[in-house]
Amino acid sequence: MNSSDSSPDFFGALMDFFNQVNGVIWADWVLYAVLAVGVLFTLWSGFCQFRAIFHGTAVTAGKYDDKDDPGAINHFQALSAALSATVGLGNIGGVAVAIALGGPGAVFWMWMVGLAGMALKTTSVTLAMLHRNVDDPENPRGGPMYVAQKGFERWGLKWLGSLIGGLFCVTLFISAITGGNMFQAWNVGVTTNEALGIPSVAVGIVLAIVVAMVIIGGIKRIGHVAGILVPVMCVLYLIAGFIVIIMNITSIPGIFGMIFTSAFNPQEATGAFIGGTAGYAFLWGMKRALFSSEAGQGSSPIAHSAAKTSEPVREGVVAGLEPFIDTIVVCTLTALVILSSGAWDRGGVGEAQLAQTPAFTQGTTGEGASAWNLGTQGVPPGGEQATWYVPLPGKTDGAKKTTGKDWVDGDNAFVVARTGATSEATGTDLIRISGEVHEHEGAYYLSFEDPVESEAMPTLVSADVFKEYPGAALTAHAFDRAIPGLGTYLVLLAAWLFAISTMISWSYYGEQGVVFVLGKWAVIPYKIFYCAMIIVSTVGIITTDAELDSLTALGTGVMLWANIPIMLIFGYLAMKAYHAYGRRLKAGEFTAHEARNIEDMAKE
Q1: How far apart are CA 90 and CA 548, in angstroms?
Q2: pLDDT (tens digit, 9 = 90+) per residue, 178-226?
Q3: pLDDT of residue 357
Q4: How many CB atoms lie within 10 A of CB 585?
Q5: Whether pTM exceeds 0.85
Q6: Is residue 296 a contact partner of residue 567, using CB atoms and an 8 Å limit?
Q7: Containing H/E element for 498?
């Protein structure tokens, strides 16, 4: 379904508003500022990334656990709960969006954000642990809102701290609903519909029920479920990814070279990729890595604040592992699969070609600007490759379904056209013109409903028609290009596991914000609304990467604007505590014991 089928004026206006807001909160200087803050705390801490990898791993393994410490969950469960919110569809769908729009160079900037993010996470979580509320030792509460409240209270400005903490909670709520919820559900709906033909809204209903059953049990149940789901889903995804990489091993050195080159130089257009400048690669790499790792957002400190420990810095060091696992490991694996498979710059051959050369007709927009329409063009069916059958109720012979090589009614597709006006973002004069495939009596038609604004008449680059693989669907297609069927079922399984784990953790984040602002009475209404939005996101109003990005970028951006200032104001406290902890660690003041079995820690 196109967005035009469902309140086009309202949805279009909403997307325009989001894009205008995103244009401000995601200005180039904001990205530089976030990266600079990460570098600041990296240098200030003396490269805490190394301590996170080595000491953080030991802490996570339970070598310093003490059951008498205040908290609700152990270090492993806290890390799993936080990772369940970060290692998710941002790693599958977010990386795909970054490469599809920004090119290979976006991966390099994702790495940079990952490294800087380790310092941001360590600092932010340490601050939260220093200021967490442990009035109820079995259910401690923490996060940037408490840092602001208690921090300013020490300066006699409690009202200001409560105000800033409340503003952070508003941004937390926005991000929980958009990136932590709607992004996840939409991707699962699209992926499931692509693989099995099940309507997205049915998927949304099932997801809402599953999420409700978990979040009703609070952080202990969330930590328990996350402690089981996260290791399983990561291992499955990593194994499959390595299989694809090994199959394309000869291309990997060239891909790394392309990643580094494209990070600082324009990437030429090829196939489905319409080109991108180095700045565009930086923009998309930063945005998607920040969304995926949540570095600087201030969300994961909320989960870590529930950890059992009497040493605030210890949990901060554990948190430093998150961006490493999320961005450096999982996101890189996804990127290599997409790039080595050729899914990102796929050619039109094997998908479809327009049956005839279409002609543009001229019109005008509401503002009087020139607009051009393509109308409806015939599209022949695709090839026979990668097909399988899915039994449907009431049918004994099954219904044909494909990985996207064959067309089905309702598929979204696009053609590439040249406008003559060079885009500052892509460095080319190429654009995508999106349409929807319709089937009638065995004939396929590609319908273009939205006009193209251009002073000169656009011209099609070729008759190639590219199927739209938004978000996680592109990653699934990449796996399928290596082993037909692998991506469809692997990404389908991973999408469900990743999405559920992410949504349950983000529901807790949003809940803590609601409690801070409104009190415990609002928890039940919030959870009902949260689950309802899962269904709303799957009814078909979101259809493209651009619309999806508008939602997730809004949630990520507003949280950065709220949390980074809090980190800068009170970061000196975290650094002071961090260095003091380091001195005590070197002096051998902390007693370590045998690492415990991960399965036992997950079950606690």
Answers
A1: 12
A2: 888 888 898 788 878 877 888 999 999 999 999 998 888 776 777 677 7
A3: 67
A4: 17
A5: no
A6: yes
A7: helix 486-518
Can you tell me the distance from the alpha carbon of 452 to that of 414, in angstroms, rounded to the nearest whole number? 13
Instruction: Give the C-alpha separation, 141 to 136, whole Å.
Output: 9
- Between helix 144-154 and helix 105-131 the angle, nearest 10°, is 50
- Phi and psi torsions of 459, nearest 5°: -130, 135
In the chain, where the domains are located? 3-343+480-584, 352-468
More confident site: 16 or 331? 331
Q: Which amino acid is at 31?
A: L
Burial 408-423 (b: 16+ CB within 10 A, else e): beebbbbbbbbbeeeb
pLDDT of residue 361: 83
Residue 528 has pLDDT above 50, yes or no: yes
Find all residues with CB under 8 Å of 576, minimum gap 6, and list them: none
Q: Is 453 exposed, middle or buried (0-12, 13-18, 19+ CB in 10 A)?
A: middle
Predicted pLDDT at 593: 63
When pLDDT is cut at 50, 70 and 90, the band that residue 154 belongs to is very high
pLDDT per residue as tens digits for the range 274-324: 888 888 888 888 877 776 777 788 888 998 988 888 889 999 999 999 999
Q: Which of 260, 246, 213 minimizes the C-alpha distance to 104?
A: 260
Q: Give mean pLDDT, residues 537-564.
A: 77
Tens of pLDDT along 351-403? 667 766 667 888 776 666 788 888 776 665 543 332 222 222 222 333 333 33
- Domain 3-343+480-584 classification at class level: mainly alpha
**Which residues does 503 contact at the CB level (< 8 Å), separation at least 6?**
180, 181, 184, 185, 207, 211, 534
Q: Residue 331: left (phi > 0), alpha (psi -120 to 50), or beta? A: alpha
Tell me if 61 sits within 8 A of 142, measured CB to CB. no
Task: Residue 523: count other Cβ atoms within 10 Å of its Cβ.
Answer: 16
Say how many CA atoms lie within 13 Å of 124 toward its Cβ.
33
Adjacent-strand bridge partners of 377? 446
Rounded CA gap, 118 and 113, in Å? 9
Pair 259, 344: CB distance under 8 Å: no
Write out the two tokens for 357. Answer: 């050369």
Mean pLDDT, the chain, rounded, equals: 81
Token pair of 569 as six digits = 């104001």
Categorise residue 136: left if φ over 0, alpha if ψ from -120 to 50, beta otherwise: beta
CA distance 145 to 400: 52
Per the CB < 8 A criterion, the answer to whether 375 and 321 are in contact is no
Whole-angstrom distance, CA of residue 320 vs CA of residue 315:
9
